């Protein structure tokens, strides 16, 4: 059997080992240490955000963002619909209620017009007032942030930016994750850089990251006798894993370059096929985390057939994230949608192609040939 080609697997260089070794050599193997401080600083320097708190996962970062935004029982939170469930689950951890909003076709992210419709519907007069908005940048492609930020300001709701997949992506020259009071990144194994598992909450306001750190350290008050006035969590990142992150972030730009090459390879290879690549806005620069295609309407090739054909050759591909409004667990949630449901359409016709940055030209050609053979 040929070696498996993955959707997106970790790519480790040499510095990661040095920083991990440094944690062992200095015996700072737990959840404080220089690797953590320097990894946080490196993320701040890269993205331009002022403060960062390294945490155990992107989901933990989202949960703390939701908590710090004051989401409580029965609170309405307006959310991206086509995303990974981790974007929206933390709302439920706090007893809040998600309202999902369909995407627009230009970036596959939340549609600002429909977002405004949702904000008008949940305005505190007709329905409970929405308290926050959570926007994900799908597959590393920035959302329409100018419109979204303006709407959140106009309606007085807090914005949380799920940039788990989009570290390094730019919207009008500004890094995703830095547009709001609460931005989050993930360093899970399949993301653009990894710490094996981990996440970060970022903000320009130091009180946000201070509060996040406090809650992530079991809400332990700064007195010797272990006093707690709030419920805390164990959401800290290990200094060993932060060492991996320090080594990885050096290569973030190179990872993005490789991801872009993969995207462009597929785009060129499929130029004459009835498929389209996942789009992005003209004034944004994605990090190209995953390359995706949609099969044109009326063409009789199903994404699962492509997935099976690739699978036979030991090549991993994946359906588009199943929209949240279609998930059994969220069946009673409201969904704001126009005349045609964009998310259902993209889900029905779309597929994530292998986008592993270790792929060779030959492997990319092999994938392209298999896809081509079905048309
Ligand atoms: C991966 C991911 C998360 C969760 O990050 P973890 O570090 O795996 O907890 C959240 N949102 C999106 C959109 C993701 O892709």
How is the secondary structure organized here?
Elements: H1 15-25, H2 34-47, E1 51-55, H3 58-68, E2 76-80, H4 89-93, E3 97-101, H5 112-121, E4 130-136, H6 145-155, E5 158-162, E6 170-171, E7 174-175, E8 182-186, E9 199-203, H7 206-216, H8 239-249, H9 252-269, E10 275-277, E11 284-285, E12 292-295, H10 303-312, E13 318-319, E14 334-336, H11 342-349, E15 350-352, H12 361-373
Parallel strand pairs: 2-3, 2-4, 3-14, 4-5, 5-8
Antiparallel strand pairs: 1-9, 6-7, 6-11, 8-9, 10-12, 12-15, 13-15
Bound molecules: pyridoxal-5'-phosphate (PLP).
Outline the structure in words:
By secondary structure, the protein is of the alpha/beta class. The protein has twelve helices and 15 strands. It has helices at 15-25, 34-47, 58-68, 89-93, 112-121, 145-155, 206-216, 239-249, 252-269, 303-312, 342-349, 361-373, and strands spanning 51-55, 76-80, 97-101, 130-136, 158-162, 170-171, 174-175, 182-186, 199-203, 275-277, 284-285, 292-295, 318-319, 334-336, 350-352. Strand 4, helix 6 (145-155) and strand 5 form a beta-alpha-beta unit. The relative contact order is 0.18. The mean pLDDT is 97. The structure holds pyridoxal-5'-phosphate. The site of pyridoxal-5'-phosphate has 14 residues, from helix 3. Pyridoxal-5'-phosphate (PLP) binds at residues 57-59, 83-84, 86-87, 136, 162, 164-165, 186, 188, 199.
């Amino acid at each position: 059997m040929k070696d498996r080609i993955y959707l997106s697997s970790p790519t480790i260089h040499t510095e990661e080992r040095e920083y991990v070794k440094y944690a062992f050599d200095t015996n700072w193997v737990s959840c404080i240490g220089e690797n953590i401080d320097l990894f946080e600083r490196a993320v701040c320097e890269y993205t331009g955000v002022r403060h960062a708190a390294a945490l155990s996962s992107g989901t933990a970062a989202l949960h703390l963002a939701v908590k710090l935004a004051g989401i409580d029982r029965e609170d309405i939170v307006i959310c991206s619909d086509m995303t990974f469930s981790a974007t929206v689950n933390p709302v439920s951890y706090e007893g809040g209620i998600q309202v999902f909003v369909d995407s627009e076709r230009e970036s596959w992210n939340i549609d600002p017009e429909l977002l405004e419709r949702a904000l008008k519907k949940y305005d505190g007069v007709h329905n409970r007032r929405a308290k926050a908005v959570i926007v994900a940048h799908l597959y590393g492609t920035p959302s329409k942030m100018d419109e979204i930020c303006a709407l959140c300001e106009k309606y007085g709701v807090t914005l949380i930016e799920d940039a788990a997949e989009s570290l390094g992506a730019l919207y009008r020259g500004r890094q995703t994750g830095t547009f709001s009071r609460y931005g989050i990144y993930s360093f899970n194994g399949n993301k653009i850089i990894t710490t094996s598992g981990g996440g970060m909450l970022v903000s320009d306001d130091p009180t946000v990251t201070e509060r996040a750190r406090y809650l992530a350290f079991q809400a332990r008050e700064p007195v010797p006798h272990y006093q707690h006035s709030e419920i805390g969590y164990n959401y800290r990142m290990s200094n060993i894993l932060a060492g991996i992150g320090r080594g990885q972030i050096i290569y973030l730009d190179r990872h993005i370059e490789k991801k872009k090459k993969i995207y462009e390879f597929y785009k060129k290879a499929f130029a004459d096929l009835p498929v389209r690549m996942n789009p992005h806005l003209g004034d944004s620069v994605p990090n190209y985390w995953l390359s995706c295609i949609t099969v044109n309407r009326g063409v009789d090739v199903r994404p699962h057939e492509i997935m099976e054909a690739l699978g036979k050759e030991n090549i991993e591909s994946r359906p588009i994230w199943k929209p949240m409004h279609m998930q059994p667990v969220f069946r009673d949630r409201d969904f704001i949608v126009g005349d045609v449901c964009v998310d259902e359409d993209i889900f029905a016709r779309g597929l994530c192609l292998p986008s592993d940055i270790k792929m060779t030209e030959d492997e990319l050609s092999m994938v392209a040939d298999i896809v081509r053979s079905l048309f």
